[in-house]
Amino acid sequence: MTVQSYVDAYSAFTRDHGRNPAWLLPVRRAAIERFRERGFPTTHDEDWHFTSVAPIAGAEFAPMAGGGDVDLADLDALSFGQTGWTQLVFVNGRYTPELSSAGTLPRGVEVRSLAAALRDDVPLVRERLGSLAALGHDAFVALNTALFVDGAFVHIPANAIVEYPIHLLFVTDAGAASGVSHPRNLIVTGRNAQATIVESYAAVGDPVYFTNPVTEVAVAENAHITHLRMQRESERAFHVGTTQAHQARHSRYTSFSFATGGALSRMNIYTALAEPGAEVTLNGLYMADGSQHLDHQTRIEHIAPNCTSHEVYKGVLDGAAHAVFNGKVYVHPEAQKTDGKQTNNNLLLSPDAHVDTKPQLEIFADDVKCTHGATVGQLDEVALFYLRSRGLALEEAKTLLTYAFAADVVQRIDDLTVRAGLEALARERFVGPMPASVG
Amino acid sequence: MLEIKDLHAAIGDREILKGISLSVATGEVHAIMGPNGSGKSTLAQVLAGHPGYEVTRGSATYDGEDLLALPPEERAQKGLFLAFQYPVEIPGVTNAYFLRAAFNEIRKSRGQDEIDPMDFRDLVEERLRLVDMDPDMLSRAVNAGFSGGEKKRNEILQMAVLGPRLAILDETDSGLDIDALRVVAHGVNSLRRPDNATIVVTHYQRLLNYIVPDQVHVLAAGRIVRSGGKDLALELEAKGYDWLVDAAPASAPAGVAGAGV
Description:
- By secondary structure, chain A is α/β, with parallel strands linked by helices.
- Chain A has 10 helices and 22 strands.
- The longest helix of chain A has 17 residues, at 394-410.
- In chain B, α5 (148-162) runs parallel beside α6.
- The two termini of chain B are 32 Å apart.
């Protein structure tokens, strides 16, 4: 039923967006065909075993119209309070220049609206868009490809080193209730480029809506991209997002996924180590309570030999929250000397909180070093007693240990401003503000 | 200051303390010795309020107040301090934060304002010298990646910063080399005042060469089987525990070893 409504939306959309370059239309048409054939995934689909998207598939979401009632004051809480950053703000799915700010960027670095880059038919966009995210693999990626309106295009040319983080901030407001947006981001780098990119999804107010973003990241030879993804949607919202990175020789991709929002959310973080010597770090922290459902799926494809992957995901769950972690590591037959380490630790603060954790190693090479481990536990009684024996009340001791559990992974973030911002968010998630410099 | 009468404590169905009576006055140092499994550490943990133990009989009063009725944090706020045999690692919380949080909780419980952070920094740096620790440790996570000796020194640092009235050192000497032992003992001795008291729980006499006790008590199978002056520790050093343990009314647990250095 609603698959058809997206197909109808597509027909209307292609009439309205005739200014897209001609090459894009067949890509979009193939994507909506794929989506129409396959429909939404169900829990019979292995990749969606623990997460039912029925609440998304069964609801009617109208394409967001853009505009919206968001002002600079609303952004304060969603930014990191820093000057010098380049911040692109998208309201209800569309680039909003009056809320955006340009920081100092090295010559040749482009940070702009993807819709504008398409209007100009930038060659790099034509070459790369859709080349990384596997269109056939996922219904949500197909839907995004068919229907995306806007998003960010970031190009860090060869040898450019961007000092301050680039923030891509997607805000939905109450006026967009019952709407859907499909933000599409393309990040392309040249050799030896370095940058930190923060991609945030958030809301003003508490509306019900659906965000379906896709971000493609091409990390060139010897480039280092740090990519932080912040999912702070309204607690009544739906969010299904996919990040697909592709790594060239000796590149480094450092990803951190921070997810606390949404009624039902799924974060796919995928990378392909395509050439020798590439290194990836996928870290993350998820925190949920109430009846939130929060699902991460990561996939690391070791395609070339001598590549390294590190992964630490941590989760803190209270109330009747349900989290899923599915970490896939595929080591292809050619990927000898692979070094892979994956860890997922979960802290349950309530007897009704629940986590399904599924580390998944598939190794087809014989000379590799791969480990994985997962834990689910409660607060350590001995540590609680230790803190209490020093004068901290039980509740404070619990708060401090919960924060410490989460902070451990946040402290792996190199950028101090981003780290401090995430530490503050992690503290506030359950316990309200705490004094600075805990960690 | 501390008055323990006929104290019985159990973990699950297993009774570990079987009637301990002990009286500690201000200004005194008491040593509690005994073989492994005699209940020494249990006594220390019960006094600090470890929730895993159930007190089944007897009493412990601290400055006339029922100690056993208080949660662990209130015991700490009233000046009781336990130096843990196995200090706990807390990744993600720095020593600086932990020390200040503990210090301020104790002040708040006494109706005092939080200490000025700069004043606190000065206090901590002075106390660090007492235990010969590098100020860099303040920005490290509590005990995380610390060596055994560093952990024990960190316990004494916490004690030095918090300034307890009654300090209980649970096997603080175990695993320390002689230099670290001297540093720890120096820290403890420097903190002795006429209005505080110390209970030193140890398996070995060695520590008592440096921290000289007023009284020595020997625990075996959950009871005090002998009390005496500091010479009793030397006698144990020479003769081991067997002669006392064998004389004890209850059978000693397996694996009882003689004292040695």
